[in-house]
Amino acid sequence: MIPQSIHIPVLYQESIDALNIKADGVYVDGTLGGAGHAFGIASQLSSEGIFIGCDVDHDAILRASEKLASLSCKKHFIHNNFRNLKHILDQLGIIGVDGVLLDFGWSSFQIADPERGLSFTQNGPLDMNLSKGLSNDRLTAYEIVNFWNEETLADIFYGYGDEVKARTIARYIVNIRKEQPITTTHQLADVVINAIFPKRVSASKPITFKIHPATKVFQALRIAVNDELTVITEGLHAAIERLMPKGHLAVITFHSGEDRIVKQIFKSYAEQGIVNLIVKKPIIPQLLEIQQNPRSRSAKLRIIEKNNPTSFV
């Protein structure tokens, strides 16, 4: 049963089933987020089982520790990036794990917080970086939007957001910021709209959109600010290395770039005989889930099982 929360974990039952959980096993949720999946994993563990939850967002750590407090398994909540999984496990004295879940989506808590600047639905600063407290050298969306060159902006919008009007938007941003900096989410969203629809009707008769024109730009900036694709690559290698034989790795992606990386890495390890592909094609949400949680519509779940024993470094 999914715990009550404003956050709805995507592909909940499918991802829990994918881990093939043993009651006394060791399991990692590398992206705690709203802690929905974490609760599902930890609730299946006995008092001998070990749950390890990681997140760069300190609020996610606090939320998960509170939500899982009543469960009997041993629990470790780590404020760190899952790309550092080997170091995290070493610090805990754990050689290998029986399962890892990685969900690359953003939790509703994060999206709804205007101070994080992740969404244009509420006005807030152009931040988007979740690693507060982990590093003093934090890249923000404000820095990218206001100081990076036009070509790089276009490459980010197209490469990370699949935005076909990337160059038009980048050029418009550069022109606007010459007059004044772009500092808020609403300001950036309006800039994107004006770039795509230069002859739009006046503000007194605003045009409506099925999907907001700034959606892909915001997605691209979130990925760039948090170095997500590099993080994913490093995290997958670390997770596979530290999986015990027969251990499972389940990964949920929401973007073609993310899914491409996961697919290629899984394929490479499968060809080496190190893992088996549990599913040849990704598992996607059923229609009912998409209707109940539209944000799940682009989700894909891929699963592998560790095949041959390897030495743990």
Descriptive keywords:
313 residues, alpha/beta, elongated
Overall description:
The structure is a single chain. The radius of gyration is 20 Å and the shape is elongated. The model is unreliable at 1-5 (pLDDT under 50). By secondary structure, the protein is α/β, with parallel strands linked by helices. Strands 3-2-1-4-5-7-6 form a seven-stranded mixed sheet, sandwiched between helices. It contains 13 helices and seven strands. It has helices at 12-18, 36-42, 58-67, 85-92, 108-112, 141-147, 150-161, 166-179, 185-196, 215-225, 228-242, 256-271, 287-292, and strands at residues 26-29, 50-55, 74-79, 97-103, 243-253, 275-277, 300-306.
What's the short version?
The chain has 313 residues and is α/β, with parallel strands linked by helices. 42% of the residues lie in helices and 14% in strands. It contains 13 helices and seven strands.
CA radius of gyration: 20 Å
> Strand portion, in percent?
5-15%
* Percent of residues in helices: 40-55%
Strand sequence of the main sheet, in spatial order?
A: 3-2-1-4-5-7-6
Q: How would you describe the shape?
A: elongated
SS field, number of helical segments: 13
Q: Give the CA-CA distance, first to last residue.
A: 37 Å
Give the overall pLDDT as a whole number: 91
Q: Could you outline the blueprint of secondary structure elements for this entry?
A:
Elements: H1 12-18, E1 26-29, H2 36-42, E2 50-55, H3 58-67, E3 74-79, H4 85-92, E4 97-103, H5 108-112, H6 141-147, H7 150-161, H8 166-179, H9 185-196, H10 215-225, H11 228-242, E5 243-253, H12 256-271, E6 275-277, H13 287-292, E7 300-306
Parallel strand pairs: 1-2, 1-4, 2-3, 4-5
Antiparallel strand pairs: 5-7, 6-7
Helix pairs in contact: 1-2, 7-8, 7-10, 8-9, 11-12
